Each structure stands twice: as C-alpha cells, then as structure tokens.
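step=encode ok
step=design start
structure_in=
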C-alpha cells in the first residue's frame, strides 16, 4: 500500500470553527478502501468530512488529491469536487419526487433519457421502493428520504463517496443488509473510496476496513478491521 499514491491526503490541517475546530497532523485515504470516522458528537467528524469533500476552507495545511497539492494549485477544486459524492446529515437537495431526485443524481453519467429512467427505476425496484417513485418527497418519512439519499451513490461515477451518518440503526434490516452488500461490492469492484461518519461503530455490518477515532478535533487512533475467515471443521478420523 505504501507504493500506491493516496487518493486524498491531509498534512498539518487546521480548521478554526466555533463548534467543531479540528487539527489533523496527517490522514490518508486510499482507493478501494472503506473508512469510518467514529467519535462522539462535537468531536469534529463533520468538519473532517467537509475538508475531505472540499466543502470546508482550511486555515492551515495542505490537501493532496492523487498526489497533487491544493496549496500549490496543482489541481482544480471545482474539478475535484465533481469527483466526490458528499451526502451530508441533511441529505440531498431533494426534488419533488424520489424519481426526479435520482434522475438528477444520474445526470453525471450522461445517459440517454430512456436509459437514465430505466436505471433509476431498476435501482428503486431492487430495494422494493418502486411504488414511491412518484410520491411527493414531503409525504415520505425521514427514513425513506434517507434511503433515497443513500441510493444516489450508485448513480454517480465519483472516486470518493462521503456519507455523514448513514443512520443504519434507524432503517429496516432488509434495506441495510442489501445496501451494505451492494455498497461494498461497488467500492471494491470500481476501486472507489468510501468514508462514513458515525458515533457508533459500523464494524458489525462487515463493511469497514479502517476506523479513524476522533476526540476533540483530533484523530487519536487508527484501527484496522480484519474480517475473520470462516473456519472449516475437520472430520473426525475413524478408527479402523
């Protein structure tokens, strides 16, 4: 991994905010890996995600994207932001209906109108949400709106996916299990990078590779998650 160029790297970052100031000496994100930012409320999780997403101005330090320095203006922030999908705690900028919202998300793929429609409807059908495609967003529960926001990541070709609090504990098991399986497959097969923030550990969902633990604006610990391989039981040796 040391020979691989990081997708994104932070060096000596300082963000001075009244509520969530952060100071990050170094943090590195590699392609094909899934990260969790874990910590209590007010620990700086959202501020760090906003820095990753280029949505938060930094006061000091340097952001590198694919080895290029933002401080030296070696890359365009506008272009890089186009390679990032960032779902904040508030979710997406919803359109009138789930269908319209997801059609807006898939625009970056530049599909024909019929193909874009079919792609979105197949995704909704896979998650048993086709019946609410044309319902008004205002008529839907907060959980259903969260599902629509989460599904949008499958419709974009971003290199970096950032989700601030996926709220898995508040969603039904059918959706979560199916979503986690598809999300992990999507990240690994397409060599994307996924960062999720949550106060609770997401390790039990068998999704996270690396956890960054935050406290009072600092990353205080980095934990690697190792998935146990299933053990095979040996057959007893029969005595002759």
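sequence_out=
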């Amino acid at each position: 991994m040391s020979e691989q160029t990081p997708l994104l790297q932070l060096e000596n970052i300082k963000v001075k905010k009244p509520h969530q100031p952060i100071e990050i000496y170094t943090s590195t994100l590699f392609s094909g890996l899934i990260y969790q930012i874990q910590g209590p409320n007010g620990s700086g999780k959202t501020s760090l995600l906003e820095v990753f997403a280029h949505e938060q101005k930094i006061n000091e330090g340097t952001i590198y994207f694919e080895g290029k320095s933002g401080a030296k203006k070696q890359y365009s922030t506008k272009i890089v932001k186009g390679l990032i999908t960032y779902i904040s705690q508030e979710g997406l900028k919803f359109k009138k209906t789930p269908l319209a919202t997801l059609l807006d998300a898939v625009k970056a793929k530049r599909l024909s109108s019929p193909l874009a429609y079919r792609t979105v409807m197949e995704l909704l059908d896979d998650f048993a949400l086709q019946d609410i495609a044309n319902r008004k967003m205002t008529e839907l529960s907060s959980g259903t709106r969260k599902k629509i926001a989460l599904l949008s990541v499958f419709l974009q070709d971003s290199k970096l996916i950032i989700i601030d609090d996926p709220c898995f504990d508040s969603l039904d098991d059918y959706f979560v299990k199916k979503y986690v399986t598809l999300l992990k497959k999507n990240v690994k097969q397409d060599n994307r990078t996924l960062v999720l923030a949550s106060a609770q550990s997401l390790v039990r969902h068998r999704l996270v590779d690396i956890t960054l633990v935050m406290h009072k604006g600092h990353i205080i610990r980095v934990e690697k998650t190792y998935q146990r391989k299933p053990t095979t039981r040996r057959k007893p040796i029969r005595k002759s």
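step=design ok
step=annotate ok -> The two ends are 51 Å apart (CA to CA).
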